[in-house]
Design brief:
Length: about 450
């Protein structure tokens, strides 16, 4: 196990002391909500890696669809061809969003989708002769991918650090929308939202509205601050500012989208329709890499409807095998009412976590939506003081929960001095009550174990 150079997120970015790093486990096989290790240990997958697994592992129907696709056609170049399977997937995804989303562009990873979204925003203004519009605004404590564009958008300080030298000064950041941490005492949610919208407006005016192309945000923040929804009314207020200055609104739903929060797009709960949405992970649920950029009609109006109208292309764009995986996963979700289960089990997960952790002194905040829940750890509930990156509390808790046979995902942690340590819980969309009981029991036990070892 020493020949694969693993660019471990946590270790490479300096978030985790090497002494805490464990060697990767050898995963032998997986089925439904379970992963089995080489030695036979059963792990209940409470996070699907980084919120990837949607219809469970080794779903026989998806396996059959992908196998059939392998026998039919796997690859053609999109400059000359399309395939029935990619077209069917596009139609299935767009049919419920007529008038809201006009086109979808398929690539392979979340990072690639965000790079495409950046370039589409630039080309959208370029084609209109607004060639100065080349600046982007995103938020601190955000994550938008590992390629240069996404990394430049990402407001996670430590991840950017080794690469700062190449990050363009055209990328700017404003405050995150984090009611738990940054709403002033006595400030109403409406006033907090107004303050954030004003900050964005000021930033646009500082840069110059004629230079700002796009505001980029995760609809519900994923790995950096663990499943953090925006305060009520935030996206409506932000969109109004964007529209006032001809700035595009792009929402990154790589982690929180594709049904994870109970609607296909997480923005459906926000009462807005963005200009661009990116999606990935749960879209094809771990069977073959697939991501997507969803675009409003105005892009088609400006760039044209043809497949070569966007000045970008990838070898494995609209990859038929990934489309087959995505199509099968999405058909199962729709046919078997999985989104209803996401909503119902999501409520049960929220209730159970809040019940089980109500007396824990280190649990500062439990937040999320659907089957996307984050727990933020603090050294004091009253002061909300973060436990701190120095002891890597979230990572230690994750290890302790794993020892109980349940996998959760560790948040990035406190490195930028703003947030606490976190864990994320994001089980498959067909998770059962019994499995949630097991996830919550293991989580509660893991937290108590680390809490008592450090603070008693
Ligand atoms: N955007 C968000 C919100 C993510 O959570 C991720 C991955 O975790 C990405 C972008 C990058 O996706 P990928 O790792 O598939 O490149």
């Amino acid at each position: 196990m020493d020949k694969i150079w693993s660019s471990d997120d946590i270790l490479e970015s300096g978030l985790l002391h090497r002494s805490l790093k464990v060697a990767p486990y050898m995963a032998k096989n997986a089925s439904g909500s379970y992963i089995y290790l080489q030695d036979g240990t059963e792990i209940l997958d409470g996070c699907g890696g980084a919120a990837v697994i949607s219809v469970g592992h080794s779903n026989p129907e998806v396996i059959e669809a992908v196998t059939e696709q392998l026998k039919t056609i796997t690859y053609v170049h999109t400059a000359e061809y399309t395939t029935a399977v990619s077209e069917e997937l596009a139609n299935l995804l767009l049919e419920s969003y007529k008038g809201k989303v006009a086109k979808v562009y398929f690539v392979n990873s979340g990072s690639e989708a965000n790079e495409a979204a950046i370039k589409m925003s630039l080309q959208y203004f370029y084609e209109q002769g607004k060639t100065e519009k080349t600046h982007f605004i995103s938020r601190k404590q955000s994550y938008h991918g590992n390629c240069l564009g996404g990394m430049s958008l990402s407001g996670h300080v430590v991840r950017r650090e080794p690469f700062e030298g190449i990050i363009s000064s055209n990328f700017h950041q404003v405050s995150p929308a984090n009611e738990y941490r940054f709403k002033n005492s006595g400030e109403s949610t409406a006033d907090y939202v107004k303050r954030l919208a004003s900050e964005l407006e000021e930033e646009i005016l500082k840069i110059g509205p004629e230079k700002v192309a796009c505001f980029f945000a995760e609809t519900i923040v994923g790995a950096t601050t663990a499943c953090l929804p925006a305060p009520e009314g935030y996206f409506k207020a932000i969109q109004a500012v964007c529209q006032k200055y001809d700035v595009l609104l792009a929402l990154d739903e790589i982690m929180c989208g594709s049904g994870r929060t109970g609607t296909f797009f997480a923005w459906e709960a926000e009462g807005i329709v963005p200009d661009i949405t990116t999606a990935g992970k749960a879209l094809s649920g771990g069977y073959s890499p697939l991501s997507a950029v969803f675009l409003a009609q105005k892009f088609v109006d400006v760039l044209g409807a043809g497949s070569n109208s966007f000045n970008c292309g990838h070898t494995y764009q609209s990859f038929a095998l990934s489309s087959a995986a995505g199509l099968s996963v999405q058909k199962i979700i729709r046919r078997d009412g999985f989104l209803q289960n996401v909503v119902e089990m999501g409520k049960y997960l929220e209730y159970s976590l809040k019940q089980a952790l109500s007396s824990s002194k280190v649990v500062g905040n439990i937040r999320g939506r659907g089957l996307f829940w984050g727990i933020e750890f603090v050294s004091s509930r009253a002061t909300k003081h973060p436990i701190g990156a120095t002891i890597h509390f979230g990572y230690m808790v994750q290890r302790a929960i794993f020892e109980e046979g349940v996998a959760v995902y560790p948040g990035f942690g406190t490195v930028d001095g703003h947030s606490g340590d976190h864990i994320l819980i994001a089980p498959p969309f067909n998770v059962t009550k019994q499995q949630i009981d097991r996830i919550v029991a293991a989580t509660s036990k893991g937290i108590s174990k680390i809490e008592s070892s450090l603070f008693s």
